[in-house]
Amino acid sequence: MPTPANPFDLSGRVALVTGGGRGLGLAMARAMAAAGARVYVNGRDAAALEACCSAAQADGLSLFSAAFDVSDVTAGLGAIAQIAESEGRFDILVNNVGQRLRAAIEDTGPEEMRSMLETNVTAAYALARGAAAQMKRNGYGRIIMLSSSAAIRARAGDVAYITAKGAVESMTRALACEWAREGVLTNAIAPGPFATETNAAYVNDPALLAGLVSRSPVERWGQPDEIGPACVFLASPAASYINGVVLPVDGGITIHY
């Protein structure tokens, strides 16, 4: 396979990022758009999505709104089909949406566990399956799952999330074996602690920062823009021989003793 002049160029590619209206999702969406892709960002708040897309377009980025709830499989598959029809192709899916439940196991019953698995695992599987069907038509596809450093670095009080993200990593490896021969590669990114809106209360807590400093080789929170290049890499021709990999973007927290 010939190497493109710029293997990180995403010009002409069409992407969908779930949960792309803020935080890490928006950072990855903007990074791919800056690399040339036309990127649809998903969320449940249509007005908020339109606002972030307008801001990106003012910066010269091709970001577009795709409002639906990822737990509604019919709506998600319909959105993928609509994007593929209007754009003439569908190349990249970033399964970024995730639900977090920080709760003791005594407060995490079967219903709570089921909800976490539905959002983090089942919805991601359904969207990946639907996206791959579109990608195979052009012989090019990149599916990027979002795991977490919590998938391999467990602690008490987070059982549902840790279980769900472990399942995401196993699913990544399984899907990598399904469609690679047809040009569709599946990988995952495992973020560590990032200073996003969702983590604002934790970022400003001196005690938590001290704990992070003691556990992380880089001794700080990650900034959202630092995840974008990893996403561009896995979405691009540069990653043409990378399949079934979980890429930590965590400052080394998962390897620190």
Explain what this protein looks like in three dimensions:
With 257 residues, the chain is α/β, with parallel strands linked by helices. It has one domain (14-195, 223-249): NAD(P)-binding Rossmann-like Domain (Rossmann fold), CATH 3.40.50.720. The chain has helices at residues 23-34, 46-58, 73-87, 110-135, 159-179, 200-203, 206-215, 228-235; strands at residues 14-17, 38-43, 63-67, 92-95, 141-146, 184-191, 246-249. A seven-stranded parallel β-sheet has the order 3-2-1-4-5-6-7, with helices on both faces. The longest helix has 26 residues, at 110-135.
Key attributes of the depicted protein:
about 260 residues; about 40% helix; Rossmann fold; 7-stranded parallel β-sheet; about 15% strand; 8 helices; alpha/beta
H-E order: EHEHEHEHEHEHHHE
Binned, the helix content reads 40-55%
Q: In terms of quaternary structure, what is this?
A: single chain
Report Rg. Answer: 18 Å
Q: What would CATH call the architecture?
A: 3-Layer(aba) Sandwich
Strand segment tally:
7
What kind of sheet is the major sheet?
7 strands, parallel
